[in-house]
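Lab notes, practical 5.
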Amino acid sequence: MKKFFKVTILASAVSLLAACGQETPEAPAAKVTDIKTYSEDQQAAYAIGSIVARNLVAPLKRQEELGAPLDKDIIVQGITDALNESTQLSDEELQAVLKSYDEKMNTLSTDAARIEGEKLEAEAASFFAENGKKEGITTTDSGLQYEVLTAGEGELASPDDTVTVHYTGTLLDGSVFDSSVERGEPATFALNRVIPGWTEGVSLMNVGSKYKLYIPSELGYGAQGAGADIPPNSTLVFEVELIEIAGQ
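Output from the prediction step:
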């Protein structure tokens, strides 16, 4: 699943210009195919060039995905001109061009995120409609769906409890974004301090139970998402085992 973020070409360019502003060792008189044959200063020059280019790879790929690719040959020309102190644009012109392009990329990125969010909403609506028809799936008034994998016989949790659980959280495509099981250590938290889908879902469980919770976006992280792993409007699927309730 694609994860959208605002691309700041201006920041990349400033980083590039800062790197180029360092004292640059002389380049080899003739092209050498084996970097290990370079002198120490020449290897340093090569390393600086490599780092500058690597800093541009990710934003350039992202710009291409958004339909606004940049000509790499012209980028190289700009670097070469700057190193030779023959830049064809003034500092004011450079800043103006980069600012305009940055605004363009932010608009494209925002539009792409909106389209992806609408796609996820449609997928979620279809998923919950079909999933709710399956045997063993219960749908609550809030839209939360759950399946009892193991029925426990201990105390019933309440929304004000602090609980200890083992869990694995995935997106609809099956990608894992968080798992206490993988970490090998259960998690303890207050049920009134987590997403609404967790508060409601775990409050249905007895100690010793294991449930599968299907949490719609509005009961999860909504249109904001959560970090790089949970995009906006994501449906969350959790397998949760209630180990204990604090004080009981």
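Observations recorded by the TA: The first strand starts at residue 137 and ends at 139. Residues 1-30 have pLDDT under 50 and may be disordered.
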